[in-house]
Specification:
This protein folds into two domains: 116 residues, 3-Layer(aba) Sandwich (Rossmann fold), CATH 3.40.50; 96 residues, Arc Repressor Mutant, subunit A. Helices cover 37% and strands 21% of the residues. The chain contains nine helices and twelve strands. Strand 3, helix 4 and strand 4 form a beta-alpha-beta unit.
């Protein structure tokens, strides 16, 4: 049987029609039915590709993690009422990978779900989701989804400008190799029709380092004096 999304709670179940229309198979329970099904281990990691949990069923998260590997083997998304600091803190506290908004558009949930399925290792031989393989670049605890243009250090997502992202992507594509300032000018600035110089590059490298090292993370972008920059662990 192909892996399916596990929907826990009524508001998660309300998304079933949209999810199935987008190509996902689904399993779903709520309340006591969910507890009974999970405790009897009717759900195994091989059957589950991702989990969506309504906010009123968060007490089931430890059981989901035990039975399905939710948050580790498969992505776990929990419902929140608002996208604020308190909600993000709660997501981390319960061990979830991301959240979906109670009143948010289904398209945003689908985007987050695809992203999480992309970054989790597939379980078994069956395909986990109906889209092409992700364009992901990584080194040490830095991870970049080139398709969705998202960046993480560990579990911390980093917001980059378009130019910062292009610079980081170029360095990642050549990780371990020195990228000259001329290469950066040609591939990051001139391709977009903008003029720049070595001083501008230095400024953007500084911006990028500041964001990547904001929480005290180790430096990955190294300066090679007289030559350029290299990204390495």
């Amino acid at each position: 049987m192909s892996p399916a999304l596990l929907l826990i709670g009524q508001r998660a179940l309300d998304l079933r029609e949209r999810l199935e229309a987008s190509g996902y198979a689904t399993l779903g329970w709520s309340g006591a039915e969910a507890v009974q099904s999970l405790q009897s281990q009717l759900v195994s990691p091989g059957r589950v590709q991702g989990v969506l949990v309504s906010s009123d069923e968060l007490a089931l998260v430890p059981l989901l993690q035990q039975c399905c590997g939710a948050g580790a083997l498969v992505p776990l998304l929990v419902e929140v009422e608002a996208d604020d600091l308190a909600a993000r803190k709660r997501v981390l506290e319960v061990g979830a990978n991301d959240f979906w908004l109670q009143q948010g558009p289904p398209s945003e949930l689908l985007r987050k779900l695809r992203q999480q399925l992309d970054v989790h290792e597939p379980y078994g031989d069956a395909p986990l989701q109906p889209m092409a393989a992700p364009m992901e670049l990584a080194i040490d605890d830095l991870r970049v989804d080139a398709q969705l243009r998202r960046v993480w250090r560990g579990r911390r997502e980093i917001q980059l400008t378009e130019r910062e992202f292009a610079l980081l992507q170029l360095l990642l594509e050549h990780q371990g190799t020195t990228v000259s300032r001329q290469q950066i000018l040609e591939q990051v600035w001139e391709q977009s029709g903008e003029a720049a110089n070595a001083n501008v590059i230095e400024v953007y490298v500084r911006y990028l380092r500041r964001k990547l090292e904001e929480k005290g993370e180790r430096r990955l972008i190294q300066t090679v004096r007289g030559q350029g920059y290299v990204l390495k662990a």
